Structure formats: structure tokens, C-alpha cells
Amino acid sequence: MQLKDTGEFGFIDRIEPLCKIHSPDVLRGIGDDCAVIGVSPELNLLVTTDLLVERVHFLLDWQSAQVLGAKALAVNLSDIAACGGEPKDVFVSLAVPDHVEINWLENFYRGMSDLGDSFKVSILGGDTTRSLTDLIINVAVTGLSKKGETLLRRNAQPSDIIAVTGYLGDSAAGLELLNRSLKVPESLSSPLIHAHLSPYPHLLEGQALARSNACNAAIDISDGLSSDLGHICKQSGLGATIFEAKLPVSEPLKRLAGQLAIDPLEWVLNGGEDYILLAAIKPDRFGEIRLRALAEGWVLIEIGVFDSTPGIKLVKISGETISIIPGGWDHFKSEEPSGQI
Ligand SMILES: [Mg+2]
Questions:
Q1: DSSP E strands, 206-292
Q2: Ligand 1 centroid from CA 219, angstroms
Q3: Do 259 and 117 fall into the same domain?
Q4: Residues 225 and 248 in one domain
Q5: Is residue 152 part of a domain?
Q6: CA-CA to 235 of 20 to 30 Å: which in 32, 107, 252, 274?
């Protein structure tokens, strides 16, 4: 049996019993956006890490070194955002093949550094070695969150409103444009490819949700809405109902789908790497938090509701209700670059 048979989540299920926790300070190990470790009476330490491999997650000619550097950091900052934390320190390890030059690596660090500066995070170290084949990038980020205000995946409650903090599916459509070289006007392809290559971590949103005391659970959409909502459902012991009519679809995505005569729903439900947040909000607080978000310059969009019936249900625009099987990206099962980090 290989990783492509079990998939990433099947693999995690198998190794989790082997990752024993020996310290009572560890509040959350494997299975959330960050590991959570109590470090003082007031604060939790958050730790997250991601691996990017050339030809599995990206191709070098898709983007400049600076853009890839910023993305390698952004996807980790997004996990800190999902826990409602403030990012602090960054560690970067690289396995570098001969076809990647020093100048490229400097620009990669410039991209990380520019994004890191805007969130006041510091690059503190890492490791560098030679690779015989592909470029391999590992970024780890630490952060801090207040005790009692750390967002996890497992505390959603029945009747909580399911809300997202941005558009769904743009990144997956951008990846499709990169993979397939589809002939569409640049005014359409450009914003979607930008969504895929340059995600912006929703740290402001995560911290505001954590402070609100109205958010019972959160996750960032990295694997796709159906998978990531599935993670919250599984860990909270709940089901969910989402409404097609409420799913936020951007104008460029609607226009691209129209041009290609396809339904964008597949990208919206199963596309990965939107790096927006999905949150479970107490129903009696939702209206107030949504208005506060607008005043602060971000959005909270209701797409459904958690319930006690197992599984994810989608109410179509036609009124028909269908079951959704989590079908987001799992790069162990994919032959071409998934972009998924
Ligand atoms: Mg995540």
C-alpha cells in the first residue's frame, strides 16, 4: 500500500496513535490547523508547517521567485489565522537542485520577507541542503493566541451558522488555467491566476473572530469547502447543510464558467487553496459580527448551518437537496501539480 492509496488524511489517521503526547501543556497535536501548546496562564503557542515540492505543488515557470516566496509564507500564516492567532516567527528549510540559482533564491526570500514585514513576523532560521531532483520548500511558523480565544476545528455546535470570509473557487479555477493553458481573455484569467498564486492570509478576520467570543470553530479553506467543512463536522460530531444560492462566487469565476459553458460549482465545492476562513458562528451573534466585520473592512458570508444529521447536505438552487462527499484536493492521489499546499 502506498500514500496514494490511503490519501493524506488516511495516512494521518494511521500515524496519529504513534505520535504520543508526553506534556500536559500540549492542548492540540495532530489534526488541527496548528498544534496548540499552553505556554503561560494567558497565552497559547501555535505551530504550523507546510511542505511545497516542485512538480507536485508548483512549476517554477508558473510564477516569479518572489511570488512563490510570498505564497510559501502566506499558506502558513493562513493556518495561524484559522486559530485566531498572531504570527511571530518563521523557519525556512530548502532542498535546492542545480537548476535553481542563488539569484532566484534571494528573490524567493525577498518575497517571503516583504509579506512577513507587513505582519511583523521574523525569519529566524532553517536548514539548506542539496536536492538531486526538485526544489523542496518547508516553511514553519509560530504564533500566539489568547487562552480562551484559540479557534479549533472541534467545537462547532448544532444551529451554528456556517460562514466564510471570501470567495470560493477562484484559486482552483486559476490552477486549472495554469495547468490547461485555456484560451480566455487576460481580464478573466488574471484575477483567477492571481488568487491561486498570491493568496492573502485572513489574519485580521481570524483575530476578530477569536476576540468576538461568537465563533465556536474555524478552519482555513486549503483543501476545498467540502473537505474543510467535513473536517469541522468530523471533529465536532456534526453534520451540515449548505445552500448553493448563498455560496459566494466572484464575477471573474462566473464569467469564466459562462465562457467555458461549465458549472463553477465543482471549483466552489471542491477546489482548494482559497485560504479564506470557514467559521461556525453562534446564531444569535451572527448579525452583529457580520455588521462589525463590514465596519472593519472584511466580510462574513453565511452559507449554511450546522446540524446533528451526519453528512454534508447541499440545497441546490432548484430546491433539490443532495449529499456532498468531501472531494477537495488530496495531492497523493493526483498525477499533475495540484497547487495544493
Ligand atoms: Mg489549514
A1: 215-220, 239-243, 277-281
A2: 6
A3: no
A4: yes
A5: no
A6: 274
CA of 220 to the centre of ligand 1 (A): 5
| Cα of 258 from ligand 1 centre, angstroms | 31
**Chain segment 23-72, per-residue pLDDT in tens:** 999 998 888 899 999 999 999 999 999 999 999 999 999 999 999 999 99
Q: Are residues 177 and 98 in the same domain?
A: no
**What distance in Å separates the CA atoms of residue 174 and residue 164, rounded to the nearest whole number?**
20
Evaluated on CA atoms 205, 211, 214, 218, the torsion sign reads: positive
Question: Are residue 178 and residue 204 in the same domain, yes or no?
Answer: yes
| Structural domain harbouring 42 | 3-146
The answer on pLDDT for 338 being more than 80 is no
pLDDT above 90: percentage of residues in the chain: 81
Burial 140-179, CB ≥16 within 10 A → b, else e = bbbbbbeeebbbbbbebeeebbbbbbbbbbbbbbbbbbbe
Query: Could you tell me the CATH number of the domain that includes residue 311?
Result: 3.90.650.10
Q: What is the pTM of this model?
A: 0.93
Distance 217 CA to ligand 1 centre (A): 13
Residue 222 Cα to ligand 1 midpoint, Å, equals 6
User: E strand or H helix at 321, and its extent?
Assistant: strand 321-324
- One domain, residues 140 and 169: no
Q: Could you tell me which of 159, 157, 197 has the C-alpha nearest to residue 64?
A: 197
d(CA 183, CA 193): 13
Closest by CA position to 143, among listed 201, 91, 85, 202: 85
Residue 258's contacts (CB-CB under 8 Å, 6 or more residues apart) are: none
